[in-house]
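Researcher: I'd like a structural prediction for the single chain below. Treat it as a standalone chain; there are no partners to consider.
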Amino acid sequence: MDANATRKSHIADRILAFEAETFGIYRLTMKSGSDNFRDSSVLDVIRRLKSAGRDVVIYEPLLDTGMFEGCAVMRDLNAFKAAVDVIVANRITRDLSDVRGKVYTRDIFGRD
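Model: Treating it as a single chain, here is the predicted structure.
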């Protein structure tokens, strides 16, 4: 558990190092095909970004609410990509290929 907390803290620090106004979280799920994000690691990263005073927007088409964890939720991918400066993605997908330059991910293999 300590290693997980350290890893999430390190990732949040790396993301906070970007001089960006608005951070986008691309999907809350940890694995493709999943709809479970209750224990997703990115939730702690979101909380850390918010506590640092950063604006956070979430792209999650599975959520039917306009707000989650104090963040606006978007279901239109193109609007999401245009609205944020940095996109935090657990997994890189073809959906993000046109904005690859503003994607932060630890996914080096492009697969689950």
